[in-house]
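#random but structural
TW: two for the price of one
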Amino acid sequence: MSKNKKIKRNKSVKQRSLSANRQSIIHAEIEEKFVSSPIPPSEMAAQYEALAPGAADRILSLAEQEATHRRKMGEKAVNAQIELLRESAKDTKRGQLFGFIIGLSAILASAYMATHGAQVVGGAVGVSSLVGLVSVFIHGRKQQPTHPSKPKGEPYKGEE
């Protein structure tokens, strides 16, 4: 995945000779190479090898180590995101369970009160618990973050 870019620049320079007042043209050529890869092209690797025996092997070894490191870091990032999602799912399930228990308790308590002579209080407890549950579901859905690792209100990539 190396990108080699050769740039040839032709420069013509006019130079005047002081004694003869003649013009001569000097032609200079500059060649530049840019490599955006940890592994140099074969010609350049051969030049490194000629300057320092074993340099090409060291360069390849460094490139392999860097690639291994990048893969490990990518794997760690993905595993961290998976763990975040698992924890978020556990929290959601736990919240739903506790909400169900609280809601069921309130409705059962209101039914008990209503059947044992306190119809007005039982009805008030039942209506207030029902309104509370509905409002939590509506309000919770509106303010729920779009992604567990993003703050509330900030859209996740691709959800804009």
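TW: number two ↓
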Amino acid sequence: MGSKRRQRMKADTVKRDVAPISYRESTILQGRGRFEGSELSALSLMKSFCNRSCGFTLIEIMTVMGIMGLLVTLALPNLIRARSTSQMRICITNLNKIESVKQTWGLEHAKSLNEIPAVTDLIGPLSYLKEMPVCPSGGDYDFRSLKENATCTVAGHTL
């Protein structure tokens, strides 16, 4: 008798832990029922859930694209300004190099302040600069005389 009582107690605890299922719920869970009242079968619920969560809607994609476009619109002018500023600074650095090389050439060769150095005097494999500096904005450098600063043809690129 004691074993039957233990089996009944186990069955009672199992019944208390799991809620009772009606016939309608069991057919829905098994996927056999199509529409019973306003409920869908488990299979059609799973299909509709998967269809909703497996991709993005057109509205979501368009919203993300709009936000990205707004960010690009805000960032692009700053990027362009930063690029032109860095090009100007590189050009001014090149002008400083040319100017220091020009002054060194004038001192070593005892030239007057009105003398204009030739490109071959300053630039070459055995000269002060190995190669001609290039303006990143596409300008050309003018060496000028020793008393004047070298210049670039691009506006704003001056010492």
